[in-house]
Amino acid sequence: MSEKDLQKTQNTTAMERIRNVKTFVPRVDIYETKEALFLIVDMPGVDDKTVDVELEKNILTISGQVENGKVKDHTLVFSEYEVGDYERTFTLSDEIDREKIKATVRQGVLRLELPKAEKVKPKKIAIQAA
Amino acid sequence: MDYPAINVWEKNDSLIVTTELPGIDPEKIDISVTGSTLTLSGTSTADPIKEGENYLRQERELGSFQRNFQLPFQVDSKKIEARYEKGILQITLPRLKEDLPKKIKINS
User: Fold this and answer.
1) Burial code of A90-124, b = ≥16 C-beta within 10 A, e = fewer?
2) Which end is more exposed in chain B, N or C (fewer Cβ atoms within 10 Å of the end residue's Cβ)?
3) Residues B6, A81: C-beta atoms closer than 8 Å
4) Chain B: closest CA distance from residue A32 (Å)
């Protein structure tokens, strides 16, 4: 793992916010099954009330708001990481059944299940011997 | 830089260490203090995937980690508190009473 990978990446393409906070690109794992696409998004500091998932046509936008991350009545004396909002956008290639999208947030991790629409599920085509 | 990154906060005679460890089972986080050394270790595991399923992207930090920190004072190990919330671990480290600087009175 290179040094850069351990640091949070600032999202320079994100729309500017009214709140003067930095926006980071959350780290994501994506895996695919026959039925669905699964996204696991690391967003420490976010809970179910402060995370937002939007799907417009085939553009999936994940955003999360994080409270300043300060510890009350304490002063920061040493800092290795910064705290800010999260935003990341994906273009989905497959048709997604948007009615069945499931999202959960636990321990700062967002899990998204994007079920594939019936019509795009791969069909096995039987080949008949000539 | 090592994983996980930490921030250190100070107030009077105690320190608070915060670190972002999203999605870890709190049971698998190990915090120990010897004298003035804080050790943080743990393991995060990936979602088990079935055969025929494949990862298209893997960016998250997974596996085991360990970091040692030298603290500026001796810690009262009995009073250490740790909280894990929204993927953020917060450890409160109070300074040992015996280690506090002694105020010297000046006689005039």
Assistant:
1) beeeeebbeeebebebebbbbbbebbbeeeeeeee
2) C
3) yes
4) 6
Contact between residue A97 and residue A34 where contact means Cβ atoms under 8 Å apart: no
> What's the pTM value of the predicted model, to 2 decimals?
0.83
Instruction: Give tens-digit pLDDT for A88-118.
Output: 999 987 678 888 899 999 999 999 999 988 7
Sign of CA dihedral B57, B60, B63, B66: positive
- Of A5, A75, A106, nearest to B10 by CB-CB distance is A75
Q: Which of A7-11, A35-39, A108-112, B29-33 has the lowest mean pLDDT?
A: A7-11
User: What pLDDT, in 10s, does the model give residues B33-71?
Assistant: 988 899 999 998 888 888 778 888 889 988 899 999 999
Distance CA B60, CA A50 (A): 21
What distance in Å separates the CA atoms of residue B26 and residue B29, rounded to the nearest whole number?
5
Q: Residue B4, preceding bond cis, omega within 30 degrees? A: yes
Give the β-pairing of B29-34 and B37-44. antiparallel
d(CA A55, CA A127): 37
CB contact under 8 A, B3 and A6: yes
- 3-state DSSP assignment of residue A27: strand
Top-confidence residue, A4 or A40: A40
Nearest to residue A29, comparing CAs of B102, B82, B60? B60
